[in-house]
Q: What sequence folds into this?
C-alpha cells in the first residue's frame, strides 16, 4: 500500500476545501483500518479516523486511578482488578460491562482505602434480567479466615444463583503480631490495630459495586460469622442508611448499643448456638470486654429498634426463632440453636437453614424502603457447616463446607 503525501508545492491535505477532505475521509475508512492503525501521517489525522469502542478482559489490577473516577483525559474507563474494561474512542462515553457478560461470573474487585489496597470477591447470579436492579449481599469472614475460604465454604456462587443476588465477599486485613485477618467491629477483633477504618472500606467497596450494575437499594444486606457477624451488626448501626438487613452468626454486639441509632429501618438477624463457649452464648467477660448474653442482646435490640410486641416463636429443626416485626426502627429475628458450638449451623445436622430463614425475613421488609425488583424465592446456597476452613489453622474461624462438613467436629476454634 502506498501513502500519498503532499509535495512542497502543494497545500497540506487538511488545508483544502470541505469536499476534498470528505473524499479523503471516505477513502481512508474503506481501507480496512490499516491506514489508521499503522501509518498516522498528517493527512490521515485530518480525516478524523478513530476506532470503535472495544470491550476486553482486564486480568490485572487497573493502574489508572483517574479512569476510575470517570474523568480520564482520553475518555477510556478501566475497571478494577478482575472487572471488564471498556476502552472507548476519544469523545465517546464509556459504558459498563453488559449484564449478559457478568451473569454467572466471579470477579475480584480492588479498592484503595487510606493508601492500602483492599480486595473482595464478587459473584454475579446466572440470571440477570435486563434493567432489573438486583440485591447485594456482603459476607464477612471470621477472625483468621480469608474471603476465599469463606466464599468456598458457603458456596457463594450457589447463593448468588439461588436467590438471586450479587454476593460480595471482602478480605479483612492482617492484625499486627499474629497476622490473623480480621474486621474492626469495636469489641472485636482488630487486635493491635484499633484505629483501622473498615467502615471506609465498606463505603468504597459499595460505591464500586454500584458502578458494576444496577443494585436494588431496598435490598442491601450484610452477614458474617463470628468476627464477621460482629462487624455486620456494626454496619447495621453505623451504615443503616445504606444497609437494610444484617445477619450475625456466632458473634455478639460490636459495642455498647446505647450509641446505636439505626436509620431507615434495618432488619437484624442473630443466630447463636447454646453450646458456644468461644463467643459465649451466656455472655460475660470476654477479651477485656463485657458482652451481653444472647437473651440480653435480644432485650437491648428490642429497645434500640423501638419494638413493642412480644416475639412470635417459630421452630426450625434444632433452632427456635423469636421474631418481632412491629418496631419503628426495623425488625429483629433471634434464632437459638440447641447444642450448637461456635459454628455456622448445618442444614444436614441442625435441620436449620440460616440463609433461607434470614432471606425470607429480609424480603418481608424490603418493600418498606424505596426500591424495587430483585430477589427470587429463597434458597439455601448450600449445606454448610462448622468452622475452621482447611488451611486456615487452629486460630482461624472459617466455616467448613462440602466434604469438610462431614469431618470430625469440623474444627472447633479457639478464637472468635
A:
Amino acid at each position: 500500500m502506498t501513502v500519498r503525501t503532499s509535495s512542497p508545492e502543494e497545500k497540506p491535505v487538511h488545508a483544502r476545501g470541505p469536499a476534498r477532505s470528505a473524499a479523503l475521509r471516505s477513502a481512508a475508512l474503506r481501507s480496512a483500518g490499516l491506514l489508521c492503525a499503522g501509518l498516522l501521517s498528517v493527512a490521515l489525522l485530518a480525516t478524523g479516523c478513530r476506532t470503535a469502542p472495544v470491550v476486553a478482559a482486564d486480568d490485572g489490577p487497573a493502574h489508572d486511578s483517574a479512569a476510575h473516577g470517570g474523568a480520564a483525559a482520553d475518555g477510556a474507563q478501566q475497571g478494577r482488578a478482575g472487572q471488564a474494561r471498556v476502552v472507548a474512542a476519544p469523545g465517546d462515553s464509556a459504558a459498563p460491562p453488559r449484564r449478559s457478560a457478568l451473569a454467572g461470573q466471579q470477579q475480584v474487585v480492588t479498592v484503595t482505602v487510606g493508601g492500602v489496597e483492599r480486595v473482595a470477591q464478587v459473584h454475579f447470579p446466572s440470571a440477570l434480567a435486563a434493567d432489573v436492579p438486583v440485591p447485594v449481599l456482603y459476607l464477612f469472614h471470621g477472625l483468621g479466615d480469608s474471603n476465599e475460604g469463606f466464599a468456598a465454604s458457603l458456596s457463594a456462587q450457589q447463593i448468588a444463583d439461588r436467590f438471586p443476588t450479587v454476593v460480595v465477599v471482602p478480605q479483612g486485613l492482617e492484625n499486627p503480631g499474629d497476622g490473623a485477618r480480621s474486621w474492626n467491629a469495636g469489641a472485636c477483633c482488630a487486635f493491635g490495630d484499633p484505629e483501622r477504618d473498615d467502615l471506609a472500606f465498606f463505603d468504597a467497596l459499595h460505591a464500586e459495586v454500584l458502578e458494576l450494575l444496577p443494585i436494588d437499594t431496598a435490598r442491601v444486606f450484610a452477614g458474617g460469622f463470628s468476627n464477621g457477624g460482629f462487624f455486620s451488626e456494626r454496619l447495621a448501626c453505623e451504615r443503616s442508611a445504606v444497609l437494610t438487613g444484617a445477619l450475625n452468626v456466632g458473634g455478639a454486639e460490636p459495642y455498647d448499643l446505647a450509641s446505636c441509632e439505626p436509620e431507615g429501618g434495618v432488619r437484624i438477624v442473630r443466630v447463636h448456638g447454646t453450646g458456644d463457649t468461644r463467643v459465649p452464648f451466656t455472655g460475660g467477660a470476654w477479651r477485656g470486654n463485657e458482652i451481653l448474653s444472647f437473651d440480653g442482646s435480644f432485650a437491648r435490640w428490642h429497645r434500640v429498634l423501638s419494638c413493642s410486641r412480644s416475639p412470635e416463636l417459630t421452630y426450625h429443626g434444632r433452632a427456635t426463632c423469636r421474631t418481632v416485626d412491629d418496631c419503628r426502627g426495623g425488625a429483629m429475628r433471634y434464632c437459638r440453636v440447641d447444642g450448637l458450638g461456635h459454628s455456622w449451623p448445618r442444614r444436614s445436622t441442625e435441620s436449620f437453614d440460616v440463609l433461607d430463614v434470614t432471606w425470607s425475613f429480609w424480603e418481608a421488609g424490603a418493600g418498606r424502603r424505596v426500591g424495587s425488583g430483585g430477589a427470587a424465592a429463597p434458597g439455601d446456597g448450600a449445606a454448610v457447616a462448622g468452622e475452621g476452613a482447611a488451611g486456615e489453622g487452629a486460630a482461624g474461624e472459617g466455616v467448613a463446607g462440602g466434604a469438610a462438613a462431614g469431618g470430625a467436629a469440623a474444627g472447633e476454634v479457639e478464637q472468635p
Q: What stands out?
A: Confidence is low (pLDDT under 50) at residues 1-95, 369-395, 400-415.
